[in-house]
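User: Please fill in residues for this 216-position structure.
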């Protein structure tokens, strides 16, 4: 039976994915090239510095380590400035209700995110208190698609991987969940999240019973 649910943050709890894209695209434009929506899709779930490396490869731009750090810091400042405009109303539709249902059902709740800004953002949208554990970019040593982030979350919650359901909008995140031996719910499109056990467009029409039925 399902004991715990582990949630990605960006693009699952809150639509920060659009702010990441704005800030990365600005960085690319500053360096003289563009970043398409499809290219941005590949950055979801990927750490800040790894994302920068991918973007620089796309643009064929070489930077020194110091310049890389500078650009990444600048990107993060822009990104955080956009995030600070958010309010609790920016929590994605149905998320709060779904987490309330999980709580009532006695399911443990954890966060599994590559972001180093996870706590700040959860505070901003007033969702921090829902999570019994937070595994974020400050704790992990290997990013998605490696299973570490979700295995740490399961261990924190004293749940077996097979009893965990992961909610993810990123290809790398679904791969991470499956590598951890967990059930994976994709948030987005089936065509993109091919390895997910089920894919839903969001939480607006998804309830505790739907999850139990899907994995019965
Ligand atoms: C999440 C997002 C990525 C982001 C990463 C690191 O996984 O999906 O787009 O690059 O977190 O976020 P950070 O807030 O630490 O730059
Ligand atoms: Mg995400």
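Assistant: Residues filled in for all 216 positions:
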């Amino acid at each position: 039976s399902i004991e715990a649910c582990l949630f990605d943050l960006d693009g699952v709890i809150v639509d920060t994915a659009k702010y990441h894209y704005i800030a990365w695209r600005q960085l690319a434009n500053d360096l003289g090239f563009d970043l398409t929506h499809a290219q941005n899709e590949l950055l979801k779930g990927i750490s800040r510095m790894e994302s920068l490396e991918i973007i620089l490869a796309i643009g064929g731009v070489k930077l020194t380590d110091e310049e890389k750090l500078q650009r990444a810091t600048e990107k993060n400042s822009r990104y955080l400035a956009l995030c600070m405009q958010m309010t609790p109303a920016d929590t994605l539709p149905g998320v709060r209700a779904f987490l309330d249902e999980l709580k009532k059902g006695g399911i443990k709740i954890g966060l599994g995110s590559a972001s180093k800004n996870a706590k700040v953002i959860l505070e901003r949208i007033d969702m921090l208190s829902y999570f019994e554990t937070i595994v974020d970019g400050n704790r992990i040593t290997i990013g998605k698609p490696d299973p570490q982030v979700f295995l740490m979350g399961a261990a924190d919650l004293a749940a077996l991987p097979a009893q965990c359901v992961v909610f993810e909008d990123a290809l790398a995140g679904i791969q991470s969940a499956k590598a951890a031996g967990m059930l994976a719910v994709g948030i987005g499109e089936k065509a993109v999240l091919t390895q997910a056990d089920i894919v839903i467009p969001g939480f607006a029409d998804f309830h505790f019973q739907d999850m139990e039925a899907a994995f019965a």
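For context: The pocket of magnesium ion (ligand 2) is lined by residues 8, 10-12, 44-45, 169-170, 173 (CB under 6 Å).
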